[in-house]
Amino acid sequence: MSQLHLTEIGRVAIPSTDQEAALEFYRDTLGFDVRTDETFADGSMRWIEVVPPGHETGIALAPPMPDGPTNVDTGIILSTSDIDADHKALKDAGVTVDDEIQRMGPPVPPMFWLSDPNGNRLAIVEPLQ
């Protein structure tokens, strides 16, 4: 095999049946920046990418593939510096989050799961120091 030229994980795509609701959630609730919001295929399809402020790796809020899943456990883990404050803020905002923060102790960091408006699940973790 010849040498590959891979440079980064640029984005992770998650299915979004309601792209507008997803965009509002990631932009307005989670505070992500919109990197791309374009229509294509004669305006019948839309490609949206959001990124945490100041970071490169993003989430593509993509139309689901035909016969593909419409809500998934994404495997996406977002880091936070204050898990208690974020859990409370998201819960107060009406976001579907775990009732409690999971605290298993080292080496597992505190974490909780949330669901976006399309039912896709993501984790929020406060990395151990």
In short:
By secondary structure, the protein is of the alpha/beta class. 16% of the residues lie in helices and 34% in strands.
What does this structure look like?
The structure is a single chain. This protein is of the alpha/beta class. The protein is 16% helix and 34% strand. The chain has a single domain (11-125), classed as 2,3-Dihydroxybiphenyl 1,2-Dioxygenase, domain 1, CATH 3.10.180. The strands form two sheets. It has a four-stranded mixed beta sheet with strand order 1-4-3-2, covered by helices on one side. A four-stranded mixed beta sheet has the order 5-8-7-6, with helices on one face. The mean pLDDT is 95.
Keywords, separated by commas or semicolons:
alpha/beta; 2,3-Dihydroxybiphenyl 1,2-Dioxygenase, domain 1; 4-stranded mixed beta sheet; globular; 129 residues
- At the first level of CATH, the class is Alpha Beta
What is the 3D form? globular
Order of helices and strands: EHEEEEHEEE
The structural domain count equals 1
Strand order of the largest sheet: 1-4-3-2
Residue windows where pLDDT falls under 50 for at least 5 positions: none
What's the CATH topology label? Answer: 2,3-Dihydroxybiphenyl 1,2-Dioxygenase, domain 1
Alpha-beta classification: alpha/beta
Beta-strand fraction estimate = 25-35%
How many strands, which pairing sense, and closed or not: the largest β-sheet? 4 strands, mixed
From the N-terminal CA to the C-terminal CA, the straight-line distance is 40 Å
Average of per-residue pLDDT values:
95
Query: Percent of residues in helical segments?
Result: 10-25%
| Full CATH superfamily name | 2,3-Dihydroxybiphenyl 1,2-Dioxygenase, domain 1
Secondary structure tally: strands: 8
Rg value = 16 Å
The CATH architecture designation is Roll
